[in-house]
Amino acid sequence: METAQDIRTINEWVKEKSGIVDLLLMELEKVIVGQRHMIESLLTGLLTDGHILLEGVPGLAKTLAVKSLAAAVDGKFSRIQFTPDLLPSDIIGTVIYNQKTQEFSNRKGPIFANFVLADEINRAPAKVQSALLEAMQERQVTIGDETYPLPQPFLVLATMNPIEQEGTYHLPEAQVDRFMLKVVMTYPDKHEEQKIIRLNMASALPEVRKVLTLGDILEARKTVEAIYMDEKIEKYIVDIVFATRNPADYNLSKLNGLISYGASPRAGISMAKAAKAQAFLCHRGYVVPEDVRHVALDVLRHRIGLTYEAEAENMTTDHLIREILHNVEVP
Predict the structure, then answer these.
(1) Which of 40, 148, 183, 237 is the most exposed place for a label (fewest CB within 10 A)?
(2) Smallest Cα–Cα separation from 205: which of 67, 24, 32?
(3) What average pLDDT does range 102-117 have in this prediction?
(4) Contact indicator for 42, 157 with CB cutoff of 8 Å
């Protein structure tokens, strides 16, 4: 049990170590206009070893953001465009036969990178999705008889286009649950749009410099793990998760017929990790309830199933989560 002195020590340590956040944000905002929430979500995934599912229309700088982050931390970047004819070997690699040496050798695929952009993940068939799922969950890939660990850090950013559903495959709930966050991106405002046009009319985009190493990121993860989370905050997270399963226990009987299934235990784990990362982004060595509330939408929106009644009433998971946050007692 940490004492007040221990928490002060952790807080000072985090203040010192979290300076890397400002460095990264400064570099990324050279080329990414607006989309602060997306950038912070990327950093949350990076700091907690979690993957991110992004939903947004084309042209919102998803690829540019991941590519820029990879450049800023000197990591290897891969982009995989998912299509219905994609094969698992196109992602993880394959065994090839060399006629000269008369030997088989393994050729690694684009999954062997620190930052992998899986563009329009719902366009690929189930076999390809399951191959990516193994890599995301196990942090390793098997090619032939050999198993290879994936590089660290390893972050998958998968995108989904919400407006075009032809030629797409439904993502199974078990796979979606593996994503730590689901971030819904919105259009920029008028001022940001004008800035984007001006930036792209210039002769060349600003260059993102390398400001950190992969070792710095792995070190920052240890700092995030050490951030103090009080038992009351843990109970608050548990209450939020349980309210998605048994809403009547939290004076939310009106949600009973709207939720077909609640959040899994991974939701609580992800919320705790994301809340610690949010505290780190705020240069704080302890978690407060507002950190939990800040990440709750992104952690839960893909982990709650809606009934037909909810869809008939035009209810979304975001509406339900806000209702739950409004009713669950804050410590």
Answers:
(1) 148
(2) 32
(3) 84
(4) yes
One-letter amino acid at 223 equals T
Q: How far is it, in rounded angstroms, from Cα 302 to Cα 321?
A: 11
For 187-245, the pLDDT digits (tens) are: 878 887 888 888 778 777 778 888 888 888 888 899 899 888 989 999 999 999 999 98
The pLDDT of residue 134: 77
pTM, full prediction: 0.86
Residue 240: its H or E element:
helix 231-245
Do the bridges between strand 140-143 and strand 146-149 make them parallel or antiparallel, or are there none, so unpaired? antiparallel
What are the DSSP calls for 49-76, one per residue?
Answer: T--EEEE--TTSSHHHHHHHHHHHTT--
pLDDT of residue 16: 79
Domains of the chain: 24-86+112-200+211-216 (3.40.50.300), 228-327 (1.10.8.80)
- The pLDDT score that the predictor gives to residue 165 is 58
Tally of helices (H runs) and strands (E runs) in the chain = 14, 11
Q: Which of 292, 285, 297, 303 is nearest to 321 (CA)?
A: 297
| 157 neighbors 54 (Cβ within 8 angstroms) | yes
Written as one letter, the residue type at 20 is I
Of 138, 124, 129, nearest in space to 175 by CA: 129
Residue 268 predicted with pLDDT over 90: yes
Maximum separation of any 2 CA atoms in the chain, in Å: 72
**What is the per-residue pLDDT across 22-52, written as a single tens digit (0 to 9) for each?**
888 888 888 887 778 888 888 899 899 889 9
- Which token pair is 216? 């710095």
Token pair of 149 as six digits = 């660990």
